[in-house]
Specification:
Helices cover about 80% and strands about 0% of the residues. The protein is built from four helices and no strands. The chain has helices spanning about 5-25, 35-65, 65-95, 100-120.
Length: about 130
C-alpha cells in the first residue's frame, strides 16, 4: 500500500476515534459503569494515539518509502480494530471473553513501533 493510502486510513481512524470518544462521553455516560467507562476510554486513547502513529508513518513513507514502513503501518492499522475495537465491545456488552482479543492488538502496536524504529535506524541520511 502506498503512503497516501496509509494517510487516508489514519484520517479515517482519527475521525472514528473522535466520534467514538464523543459517543462514549455523551451517549454512553449513563449506560456504562465507571469501570467499563474506563475501559472504553482506554480504547479511545489508544485508537487516537495509533491513528497519529499511522499518520506519521505514512508521512515518513512519503520521504523514505520502504517495506518496513509499510509493515509498521499495517501493524498499526490492524492493531486499532483488534485492541480498541475489543475494548469498545467489552465496555458496551460486558462480555469479558472479548478481552482475549485485546492483547493481539497490543502486540501489533508493539510490532509497529519496533518496525518504525528499525526503518528509521536503517534509513540512509538524506
Amino acid at each position: 500500500m502506498n503512503a497516501r493510502r496509509w494517510i487516508a486510513v489514519a484520517a479515517a481512524f482519527g475521525f472514528l476515534g473522535v466520534a467514538l470518544g464523543a459517543f462514549g462521553a455523551h451517549a454512553l455516560r449513563s449506560k456504562l459503569s465507571p469501570e467499563m467507562a474506563g475501559v472504553y476510554r482506554v480504547g479511545v486513547e489508544y485508537h487516537l494515539f495509533h491513528a497519529l502513529a499511522l499518520l506519521c508513518t505514512g508521512l515518513y513513507a512519503t520521504l523514505r518509502p520502504g517495506r518496513m514502513l509499510d509493515l509498521a503501518a499495517g501493524c498499526f492499522a490492524l492493531g486499532v480494530p483488534l485492541f480498541s475495537g475489543s475494548l469498545y465491545a467489552l465496555a458496551v456488552t460486558g462480555n469479558r471473553m472479548l478481552g482475549i482479543i485485546t492483547p493481539f492488538g497490543g502486540l501489533l502496536f508493539l510490532a509497529g513501533w519496533i518496525l518504525l524504529g528499525v526503518a528509521a535506524w536503517r534509513s540512509a541520511p538524506p
